Automatic annotation (TrEMBL):
Function: Vesicle trafficking protein that functions in the secretory pathway.
Protein name: t-SNARE coiled-coil homology domain-containing protein
Keywords: Coiled coil, Golgi apparatus, Membrane, Protein transport, Transmembrane, Transmembrane helix, Transport
Compartment(s): Golgi apparatus, trans-Golgi network membrane; Prevacuolar compartment membrane
Domain T-SNARE coiled-coil homology stretches: 137-194
């Protein structure tokens, strides 16, 4: 077996280990208090690992789609790997739904549907020079529209992040003021009890 196939299996096995780690963390979650900073940290760690695993699965899918050209695999082996990947993706989706990570299951809501671009060579087949230039302009226009859409998303996210940051700053100041008030009240109580 060629090295790229071995790297796919190795990457898949690492994904399996990460999935087992996430499953254990989800099981440990039941022993933690229902709320509080420790429970939030634990849930955040689980979400982060699920996201990492999702990225790893996307990478495995990409490598798998490129393997037939790089190395000859039997159809049976390709189907076996596709099944292994589909099963792991299903397991990750179940873990994500356990944590109400619906956005993980449907990344299209954020990034739009993943559309395989038509190969530029096949689009240019049969075109003369003017047609090729027109096609290039059309492709550049499509890319510009995609970038504009991405810019809108980034700006929206930035505004949300700034609003959250401002709210956190306000809450921090309120907590600090409350701490000062508690300290003053505590010292007054000590003076009165003496």
């Amino acid at each position: 077996m060629a090295s790229s196939g071995d790297s796919w299996i190795r990457e898949y096995n690492e994904g399996l280990k990460l999935a087992d780690d996430i499953t254990n963390m989800i099981s440990e979650r039941s022993s933690l208090p229902a709320s509080g900073p420790e429970a939030q940290r634990h849930s955040s760690a689980i979400r982060r690992k699920i996201t990492i695993l999702g990225t790893r699965l996307d990478n495995l899918q990409s490598i798998l789609s490129k393997l037939p050209g790089k190395q000859p695999l039997s159809e049976k082996e390709m189907n076996r790997r596709k099944d292994m990947l589909a099963n792991l993706k299903s397991k990750v989706s179940q873990m994500a739904s356990t944590l109400n990570m619906s956005s993980f299951a449907n990344r299209d809501s954020l990034l739009g549907p993943e559309i395989k671009p038509v190969d530029a060579t096949s689009r240019a087949t049969g075109l003369d020079n003017y047609g090729v230039v027109g096609l290039q302009r059309q492709i550049m226009k499509e890319q510009d529209e995609g970038l504009e859409s991405l810019e809108e998303t980034v700006m929206s996210t930035k505004h949300i992040a700034l609003a959250v940051n401002e709210e956190l700053g306000l809450q921090t100041r309120l907590i600090d003021d409350l701490d000062e008030h508690v300290d003053v009240t505590d010292s007054r109580l000590q003076v009165r009890t003496c």
